[in-house]
Design a protein that fits this description.
Keywords: Porphyrin biosynthesis, Transferase. The chain is of the alpha+beta class. It contains 11 helices and 11 strands.
């Protein structure tokens, strides 16, 4: 099945002006009972889903970082060592802003199409390098083509990147609950709650890094102007343990709540709620520092470019 995002390839994603670019047609088929469930890259899913649908499970998250494939003439180099005015392809405002801030000697150019199409454009010499999700490259078996993996201190990644999500009709959620991977669910709910509170879609210049370890959830988030000259970045952590939940009343332990489209079947609902709260709180902190104007100005600049 083909989506709007698959069909319109002559414009950057933010210029298409549609929400649910990679999910709308699929969700229509699900609502019409033409398919039983959908599997998405979580980063492509809006934080609000159509009535009657929900994320039934988030599978084990792969490495969420971004990675670089360089043209063969640049073998052995990195973004730092590329010649001035080398052309790097990406379809993401998030990546564009960070690349312009960290690597001002490079030219950042939009690139569209599926992974094979983008790699062919690179092979033909239209670009000196392209930036893709590391997890997507690994699923394609392209690990030998990777020139550089970008750590979080170089490039924060997209909300939900690296995770696959099962979308289903809301009455079917319990069936998919055993597929949930707790160490992936808590960070991605925090990330999606942050993005939802900021009001940004999956193409907004918002990026994150998160980690759930030993009962503590750590979330880093940032927003950028399109040219990377203005940025806000904040960090927040939260204990997600039973000790934190002992004083919560039983009536709050519900399994029918939705958190940015995600159900909590098979999980401790209050742990999910704490993850959600962390994302909301961090977003509110960024908003208090002017994040909404930065995001809006970035989108406006993109539309005018």
């Amino acid at each position: 099945m083909s989506t709007i995002g698959d069909q319109i390839l002559d414009r950057p994603l933010p210029k298409i002006g549609e929400k649910s670019l990679f999910t709308k047609e699929l969700e229509t088929a699900l609502l019409e009972n033409k398919v039983d469930f959908l599997v998405h890259s979580l980063k492509d899913m809006p934080t609000s889903l159509p009535d009657g649908l929900a994320i039934g499970a988030i599978l084990r998250r792969e490495d969420p970082r971004d990675a670089v494939i360089l043209h063969k003439k640049h073998r052995g180099q990195t973004l730092e060592t590329l010649p001035p005015k080398s052309i790097i392809g990406t379809s993401s405002l998030r990546r564009t802003a960070q690349l312009k801030r960290k690597f001002p000697h490079l030219i950042i150019k939009d690139i569209r199409g599926n992974l094979q199409t983008r790699r062919e454009k690179l092979r033909k010499g239209d670009y000196d390098g392209i930036i893709l999700a590391f997890s997507g490259m690994m699923r394609m078996g392209w690990e030998d083509a990777i020139s550089q993996v970008l750590d979080e201190n170089v490039m924060l990644y997209a909300v939900g990147q690296g995770a696959l999500a099962v979308e289903c009709r809301i009455n079917d959620c319990a069936f998919f609950a055993p597929l949930n991977h707790k160490q992936s669910v808590f960070p991605t709910i925090a990330e999606r709650s942050l993005l939802n509170t900021l009001g940004g879609g999956c193409s907004a210049p918002v990026a994150v890094s998160s980690k759930f370890s030993e009962g503590t959830l750590l979330l880093i988030a940032a927003v950028w102007s399109l040219d990377g000259s203005v940025t806000l970045q904040e960090t927040l952590s939260q204990k997600i343990t039973n000790e934190e939940l002992k004083d919560e009343p039983d009536e709050k332990r519900k399994e029918n709540d939705l958190y940015c489209g995600m159900t909590v079947h098979g999980l401790e609902p209050l742990q999910v709620r704490l993850s959600h709260k962390l994302g909301v709180t961090l977003a509110q902190k960024l908003i208090s520092e002017g994040a909404l104007k930065i995001i809006e100005d970035a989108k406006t600049a993109c539309m005018k470019s």
